[in-house]
Amino acid sequence: MTMATMIMVLNISFILSMPKMAQLKRRADLVAKAEADISEMKSRAANEIEASRQQAIADLRAEVAGIALGAAEKVVQGSLDDDAQRRLVDQYIDEVAGS
After folding, report:
1. Structural domain boundaries, residue 23
2. How far apart are CA 99 and CA 85, in angstroms?
């Protein structure tokens, strides 16, 4: 086989392999994009989960505070007469106004 024949065979082989190389590159690009999309979705999901968790904690704190306030109100109303309640409210207002 002459040098010219060998070069021609190599050129033909290269030309014939070009569609396969393009197909492999396209596949690699699709895999890379899919991996990036998955990573972004995981990050978004983690952020949404954390936001939901924080909101649930805030809701629970508000609920507990409301229950505690209601219970304290019942105890105070049951143990204080009207005059004592008024004095307590006036005292609180004076403290708040002073600060």
Report:
1. 3-73
2. 21
Question: Region 80-87: what's the mean pLDDT?
Answer: 78
Q: How many domains does the chain contain in total?
A: 1
Rounded distance between C-alpha atoms, residue 8 and residue 77, angstroms: 103
For residue 54, tell me if it sits in a domain.
yes
Cβ atoms < 10 Å from Cβ of 88 = 12
Q: How far apart are CA 62 and CA 56, in angstroms?
A: 10
Q: What predicted TM-score, i.e. pTM, was given to this entire model?
A: 0.52
**Is residue 84 in a domain?**
no
Answer whether residue 99 shows pLDDT above 70: no
- Please indicate, yes or no, if residue 92 is contained in any of the structural domains: no
Our CA angle for 92, 94, 98, nearest 5°, is 120
Residue 46 — left, alpha, or beta (φ > 0 → left; ψ -120 to 50 → alpha)?
Answer: alpha
What's 13's DSSP letter?
A: H
